[in-house]
Specification:
By secondary structure, this protein is of the alpha+beta class. The radius of gyration is 19 Å and the shape is globular.
Amino acid sequence: MAEPTQIPIIDFSFINQSRDKVSKEIVDALESVGFLFLDNVGFDRKAIEQACKWFHSLPESNKFALATKSFNPKNKNIYRGYFPADATNSSFKEGFEVSEELSQEECVSIGFPLYEPNRWPSATEEETAWFKKTLCDHYKLMHNTGTEVCRLIARGLGANEDWFDHMFSPYPLSTLRLINYPIRPKPIPDCARDGDYILHCGSHTDTPFITLLATFDYPGLQIQDKNDLWVDVPVRSDSLVLNIGDVLSKVTGKRLRATRHRVVDMGSTRQSVPYFLEPRFDANINRTIVNTGATTEEEELGYGPFLIREMKAKGYVEYEDLLK
């Protein structure tokens, strides 16, 4: 009988004292399980959970004022902002997304799609300032944490620590998302059932480099192990859950695993806050850290076009109109 899958735990406070050890632990975890817990990152769990709950408690009119054009045709934002839950889909969640804080002038000067200014909710001046600062602080910490993890991965794979750095500078496409999973209304669609389970979010792999997820005290996250069995991810409320996406798996020659995962409906509302570390739009992802030979211009594949293609292939309902 196979041993049950255990989610490795990495103490991030040891990265300077035992860098080689932590690098090996991270690579081993991402080769074998594809998920790990990251302890002692130093994020303000209470503040980001409060911000998530505060946003999703706003009146629907306030949230739809920030919705992407797909859900509010009056708006110009097509990528960043709010998206509502769709009870007919296997993934039943609403979310609010922000990126690096950029002005309209900066977005125009970058010249690639998907860059646009963040939208912020209208509330009291004090509330809006608190909410914006909380998200921007968390975004910055997650970016720094994610890029440091990339350096440790590079070290653990025997490459220079800065091997990935250029892919995230300038202007990464990284995303911070506040998710609320409401209780599913009945009848439950067939696409949201798997045996006795009702799904809040269907089975998928993430696309970007690294996901850093705050789950607070909510159970429901499951990963698919090497035997195709679904395994519960335990609640570890002050830790971050770390997993990798298809792009990091690709640039490590599939040595690291982009593990399928899902969220099951536990019969109550649920919040989580993922941060997706993503390269800049034109970063070449058609090279691997295990074979660092130069690629020709014809062989290059930019992250942005790859991301848009993957969104279409995976059928992300929140970006459906954007991808037409």
